[in-house]
Design brief:
The complex is a heterodimer of chains A (about 270) and B (about 210). Chain A has about 270 residues and is mostly helical. Chain A is about 70% helix and about 5% strand. The radius of gyration of chain A is 21 Å and the shape is elongated. Chain B has two domains: about 130 residues, P-loop containing nucleotide triphosphate hydrolases (Rossmann fold); about 60 residues, no CATH class. In chain B, about 30% of the residues lie in helices and about 30% in strands. Classes of the chains: A mainly alpha (about 270), B alpha/beta (about 210).
């Protein structure tokens, strides 16, 4: 039975199953997100803070406590989704290569992994947004969720790239944690008074932070900025896919790779 | 008048395969030819290039030069168990059933029975013993009834009973016309093999244990 739909469905189901069995990531989602946001809610002062919404060029004056919670949600989701995608890519590379050599279409595996990541990122973003909504009412919670989601997707791509290139588990985790922390710190005017300076636009969390802050505190919708997180994902995913193709290449001559259904049975 | 000798149809041909890692020349022109229904072995010291050769034969690694030709479906059992710790035994079988394009899992179930690990069908691979993981590793290479089978140290971690069962599975496959190439660093059970090669100095030469190298 040579059915592309069946191949994709099988790969997608197992990719999702892998995420649900990554217990450490699940613990992080369930406990770390509310813990992190609650800590910020309790300890960060509610002083007025200026934020440059570049999409409209307007300076917003927002509650520092709430702004930090938005940053915290982005930071937590990027860490978790980046970690999940790094682990799944890193740990299954040899297994995926074996599947490809056995005849599994590479594209099915890749698309299934991305589909599972999008679903996981959407659920985690919804959960983080719900925790924020527990403490205060963002102006547009759905757009806030979309902003946090695009941040998770961007770091999912970074996780895939690191998983495809790095040979050391600890190195991958360290790079994801440090990148996300630095990125979050530089976007937030409380931790970085120079957040209005040019240059922060080049960082992966820039677009998602702009969208999330706009959603939390204004009626503006920076549509273009909604695409920046996915653009980061696309760039990272393309590089990761190129590495995956190189590492799962079949070096046999084409005649030795005929589909099994076309080969004569004994 | 006796019938003229007809060699078995060729199943695997390797000619002049070279492979170097940097300045280290691992394979320096490996050539061999195996027919259908042959159970052959390759032995060699640690680092002789046995795993590199098998990876080239299965397409995982590119040779620097030379040619590899095989006829029919290929099965490859890697030396290290290449499995996914998040999935169960059953899920592995289903994944490879789809990869190989098989309608059912009859052969996989037979192999599980033969290798005595059907009871672990619903167990996560992460909790299995080394020997059971190796049984699954082997089953994934055999479940599509390959016509050419490459096995890299396939009995690592097996107990004695399983080791013997492995050889009976291999013999039955050979009798059904499968060409099997087993790589090992030890020349055990050479009487079970139809042909034996020794990989030495980057070259494979026909070899009989106890008669010196080459």
């Amino acid at each position: 039975m040579d059915n592309p739909g069946r191949r994709f469905a099988t790969a997608a189901a197992f990719a999702l199953l892998e995420h649900t069995r990554n217990r450490f990531a699940l613990v992080l989602v369930v406990f770390y997100i509310p813990f992190w946001l609650t800590m910020e809610h309790w300890f960060v002062a509610s002083a007025p803070t200026g934020f440059l919404l570049r999409a409209t060029g307007r300076h917003l004056t927002v509650d520092g406590n709430r702004l930090t919670m938005v940053s915290g949600a982005i930071n937590a989701v990027t860490l978790i989704v980046g970690f999940m995608m790094f682990m799944t890519t890193f740990k299954s590379l040899a297994f995926d290569r074996r599947l490809v050599l056995a005849g599994y279409p590479r594209v099915c595996l890749l698309v299934a992994k991305v589909g599972a990541m999008l679903l996981a990122a959407a659920l985690i973003s919804a959960y983080a947004t719900a925790v924020i909504c527990w403490y205060w009412d963002p102006v547009r919670p759905w757009l806030l969720m979309a902003g946090v989601f695009t941040a998770g997707v961007g770091y999912g791509g970074i996780g895939i790239l690191l998983g495809a290139f790095l040979r050391n588990e600890l190195a991958g985790l360290f790079v994801i944690i440090m990148t996300s922390l630095l990125d979050t710190m530089l976007q937030n005017p409380i931790s970085n008074p120079g957040a209005t300076k040019g240059g922060v636009q080049a960082l992966p969390e820039y677009g998602p932070t702009q969208v999330s802050v706009a959603a939390g505190f204004s009626h503006d919708t920076p549509y273009g900025h909604l695409l920046l997180g996915p653009a980061w994902f696309a760039a990272m995913w393309l590089l990761g896919t190129a590495a995956f193709r190189l590492r799962t290449r079949d070096h046999r001559p084409a005649a030795g790779r005929r589909p099994l259904s076309a080969a004569a049975r004994p | 008048m006796p019938a003229p000798y007809a060699p078995p149809p060729r199943a695997l041909r390797v000619s002049g395969v070279h492979k170097s890692y940097g300045a280290r020349r691992v394979l320096r022109g490996v050539s061999l030819e195996l027919g259908r229904g042959t159970l052959a072995g390759i032995v060699g010291e640690n680092g002789a290039g046995k795993t590199t050769l098998l990876r080239i034969l299965c397409g995982q690694t590119a040779a620097d030069s030379g040619a590899v030709e095989h006829r029919g479906r290929l099965g490859y059992c890697p030396q290290e168990t290449v499995l996914n710790d998040f999935l169960t035994v059953e899920q592995h079988l289903r994944y490879f059933q789809v990869a190989y394009g098989l309608d059912g899992m009859r052969r996989a179930e037979e192999l599980m029975e033969e290798l005595h690990f059907s009871g672990y069908r619903h167990s996560r691979v992460a909790v299995l013993s080394g020997g059971t993981r190796q049984k699954l590793n082997l089953t994934l290479a055999l479940m599509h009834d390959p016509q050419v089978l490459l096995l890299d140290e396939p009995y690592q971690g097996f107990d004695w009973e399983t080791y013997l069962r492995f050889w009976s599975v291999a013999a039955r496959l050979r009798d059904r016309g499968c060409c099997i190439l087993v790589v090992s660093h030890l020349a055990w059970d050479t009487e079970r093999l139809d042909a034996l090669y020794r990989l030495h100095d980057g070259v494979a030469a026909s070899w009989q244990p106890g008669r010196g190298g080459g």
